[in-house]
Amino acid sequence: MPAIAAALALAALTPSATTLSDEWATTAWAHPVAAAPVRTAPEGSARTIARLHARTEMGSPEVYVMLSQQPDSRGRMWVRIRLPGRPNGRTGWVRRATLDDTQVTHTTLVVDKHALTATVLEDGRATWRVPVGVGTARSPTPAGRFYVRELIKLKPATTAYGPYIYGTSGYAKLSEYPGGGIIGIHGTSQPGLIPGRPSHGCVRMRNADVRELTKRLPIGAAVRIRN
Predict the structure, then answer these.
(1) What is the rounded (10 degree) CA torsion for 213, 209, 126, 21?
(2) Where are the domains of the chain?
(3) What is the pLDDT of residues 15-35, one digit of tens each?
(4) Enclosing H/E stretch for 121
(5) What is the pTM of this model?
(6) How many whole angstroms separate alpha carbon 121 and alpha carbon 174?
(7) pLDDT tens, 100-116?
(8) For residue 133, pLDDT beyond 90
(9) Three-class SS state of 209
(10) Cα distance between residue 53 and residue 98, in whole Å
(11) Do 17-104 and 105-226 show the same overall fold?
């Protein structure tokens, strides 16, 4: 009984986390304002697993999705963020003061690798769907929860990547994305291969579709890739 009472007392003193993003109908994000440590728990004594960085590999302002927040034992607010980079799916905690103002999007892109489609959802409701190309069996497009970090307009628009390329927080074993192994969402110079599995890990769209996507998919939007 004393052990149970102690556990209940500790639970009563431990602050509960407040959800900021469901990564479906609502996704909150922010740019970093300091190269602060990312920790395993919302405490300054927790182990450091990464550091915030100001720019993406392509030089765009970096983006971090804010999953939840809670105060530490000293009343300082911490935020659990989703981390871009390998291995995919990592999260960690940073002080709220190390992130800029909160931005919110209600848009999500769902890529279905089986159906070879990409669907835009607004507030959880499907509003637009197009065929896509994904990775081959040897260079698959990883499944998971990711988000949009940047949008780059390409000049000329007749390259292998089409007129635009989105950079996401996900990474593949191989990728044709200019900055390295990033899972990109972009156009193509080979529209006849869509729908299909022609890529090294990126998600390819027909050029007209990726142009339309830029009107629908904002920075910070959640991206879910399903098997």
Answers:
(1) -30
(2) 17-104, 105-226
(3) 688 999 999 999 999 999 999
(4) strand 117-122
(5) 0.90
(6) 28
(7) 999 999 999 999 999 99
(8) yes
(9) helix
(10) 11
(11) no
